[in-house]
UniProtKB/TrEMBL annotation:
The keyword Metal-binding applies. SUPFAM superfamilies: Cytochrome P450. It comes from Gordonia sesuvii. Belongs to the cytochrome P450 family. This is Cytochrome P450. Keywords: Heme, Iron, Metal-binding, Monooxygenase, Oxidoreductase. The lineage of its organism: Bacteria, Bacillati, Actinomycetota, Actinomycetes, Mycobacteriales. Its cofactor is heme. The keyword Iron applies. Gene3D superfamilies: Cytochrome P450. It holds the Pfam family p450.
Length: 411
């Protein structure tokens, strides 16, 4: 493959199909990091933006949250999709800035503190055992993503939120349609109105859940959010259901991608799998490396509130910036051999969870789930290999593997 031009490389950042082709994507991002790390992107269908591809520059933008805000454009979408979502008035944490963001983040923060997560650890370990048992009973060959990786994190986050188990399949479909709207396998259709219908259906479901928890509070996260008070006022219905939607989607698909991408990495790097199996104390470091390697959240957007500069490039007030976490996590200046998968990697300053005030709320839970799953799986996994071609989802926001056929033997 010939090296992409700067124009081709910049266009790839906004092309969902590029994220389903890792060679093409990383070639484009490497070209930008080397020659145009703050690149202007003007591509049909999208409002213009700057692509920020170096780890150092991403961190600088994340630190300056007073200069670079999440609102009004937190996620890369087509201009038409931005208009449709604005009409729905969705208001999640990723759409907010301080001081409102800090207050809203505090509503669910206690659910992700170490003390709370410690009480959940044994239950998550039990669930990991259940899904490893399912893998063992699957007959030595399966699609690891669809049969294992999507279900374990789904069960964890939906149970935490308070969704009845009977509704888990519906939630799985809706979360995949929402975050996978750019992939033909997950999207309801190519019609943006149909994509919006998945969001409205989830909102309708969560509106009913919120009403139930206000009438009869329980000990789940849904009750905490539904009955929260900020600045002396109860949360509005749109704020409650937006919060639910964020927890449901971010708490599921990102962890699914990390677990499935971690499995692929262990299959393709058998020496690292043996190293980790022989020393499970490496699991915390290995989990961070899996998250860096996969980078489930591909990018977030920021908007400049004043004339400024990034990496020496002038940025005008009102300009949008795309923080390419995928690129930052393979930056040669930030990581020793960034294209080497290393379960014992030290000083792993990846940006997969973001940084600063918008650092991922659920990061501790995701780390716990990954460690619990592989702590259960690896001692029982005698051998594993690919049984077909892995397939990645087309996306510019959240995604990873959607199919991982494996052949394996369990102890």
């Amino acid at each position: 493959m010939s090296a992409p031009t700067i124009h081709e490389a910049a266009a790839a950042v906004a092309d969902p199909s590029a994220y389903a082709d890792e060679d093409r994507l990383h070639a484009a991002l490497a070209r930008l990091r080397a020659s145009s790390p703050v690149a202007r992107v003007e591509t049909p269908g999208y409002n213009p933006f700057w692509a920020i591809t170096r780890h150092e520059d991403i961190m600088a933008v994340e630190r300056a949250n007073d200069v670079f805000t999440n609102s009004p454009r937190p996620v890369l979408m087509t201009a038409q999709q931005e208009e449709l979502q604005a009409a729905v008035q969705i208001r999640t944490l990723i759409h907010m800035d301080d001081p409102e963001h800090k207050k809203m983040r505090a509503v669910a923060l206690n659910w992700f503190r170490p003390k709370t997560l410690k009480t959940m650890h044994s239950r998550i370990d039990d669930l990991a055992r259940i899904y490893v048992d399912k893998l063992a009973s699957a007959g030595g060959e399966c699609d690891f993503v669809q049969e294992v990786a999507v279900n374990f994190p789904l069960y964890v986050i939906m149970s935490l939120l308070g969704v009845p188990e009977a509704d888990f399949p519906r939630m799985l479909q809706l979360t995949q349609e929402l975050v996978g709207f750019e992939d033909s396998e997950y999207a309801r259709s190519a019609d943006p109105d149909d994509q919006l219908s998945a969001l409205l259906e989830m909102f309708e479901y969560f509106t009913k859940l919120a009403a139930q928890r206000r009438e009869r509070p329980t000990d789940d996260m849904a009750s905490t959010i539904a009955n929260a008070v900020v600045d002396g006022e109860p949360l509005s219905d749109i704020d409650v259901v937006s919060y639910y939607a964020l927890i449901a989607t971010a708490g599921h698909d990102t962890t699914t991608s990390s677990i499935s991408g971690g499995m692929r990495a262990l299959v393709e790097h058998p020496g690292q799998r043996r190293r980790l199996t022989d020393d499970l104390d490496l699991l915390p470091a290995a989990a961070e490396e899996m998250i860096r390697w996969v980078t489930p959240v591909k990018a977030f957007m920021r908007t400049a509130t004043a004339d400024t500069q990034v990496g020496g490039v002038p940025i005008a007030a009102g300009d949008s910036l795309l923080l390419s976490y995928v690129s930052g996590n393979r930056d040669e200046d930030a990581f020793d051999e960034p294209f080497r998968f290393d379960v014992g990697r030290e000083m792993n300053r990846h940006v997969a969870f973001g940084f600063g005030v918008h650092f991922c709320l659920g990061a501790p839970l995701a780390r716990m789930e990954i460690c619990s799953f592989y702590n259960e799986l690896l001692p029982r996994l005698e051998s594993v290999s690919l049984a077909g071609e892995p397939e990645l989802s087309a996306t510019t926001f959240v995604g990873g593997l959607k199919h991982l056929p494996i052949r394996y033997a369990m102890r």
